[in-house]
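Notebook B, p. 112. Complex prediction, attempt 2.
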Amino acid sequence: MRGRERIQYKTADQIRLMRRAGLVVADALDAVRAALHAGVTTKQLDAVAEDVIRSAGAVPSFLGYQGYPATLCISVNEEIVHGIPGSRSIAPGDVVSVDCGAILHGWHGDAAFTAIVPPAQGSVDERAAELVEVTRGSMWAGIAAMVEGERLNAVGAAVEDHVGDRFGIVEGYGGHGIGTQMHQDPHVLNYRTRDRGPRMKAGLCIAIEPMLTAGDPGTRVLADDWTVVTRDGSRAAHWEHTIALTEGGPWVLTARDGGVEELAALGVRANPLAD
Ligand code: MF3
Ligand code: CO
């Protein structure tokens, strides 16, 4: 709530350290994407990510977090977030959300993507493809709304406006401040609220992570106490980036180009800091 939140604003040098953690997460997710094929198990994908993270001298941040047992969250079809990797093998046509976090030199990065594994025959289900694309687009719309002096809920409003009535927006889960912990203030909602939140200023580092459903956005948690699924069994998608707001604009720490290309398409100039 406004006034009670304690936001840890980062210096330019601290943001540069977070960038290094962000790139480790980007590398891990790229490797998982390359390994994501029908027949691979979610546990195998988890091992791919853990290898990349440890080889970079970093540590998986989800592993051991409140007892969480893996490096990745892998959430398939009606699973929205926090799916635990295991013996499940990925099937053709699956909608697969992969979420990854890493700590390097004490600083966190956190990002996620959703991809559809090509079906054995025919083309990818159109509604599922649109779900993935609208979720991705809503994340970028939220990132583009990170403007110094504007209020934080501009992010949630931009996500909501991008989604419109095309898909359900999951409530009860959202983005977060990030830095020397994975989860810090402020909480970053994926929809518009009356409380427009604190004014954004340089040094604000947040993870923006919209979760959308093809049907009703109602959720429940499975008996494993982690996996969040849609109540109606409809499919879900989840995208996430870690972003720093610098004096010259947003820098997407978990995007290889810092967000330059995607933000330019939205008329926003990203501001990767020089080393
Ligand atoms: N990226 C997710 C988040 O921001 C993943 C954390 S789940 C846990 O909340 F596995 F780490 F617990
Ligand atoms: Co997150």
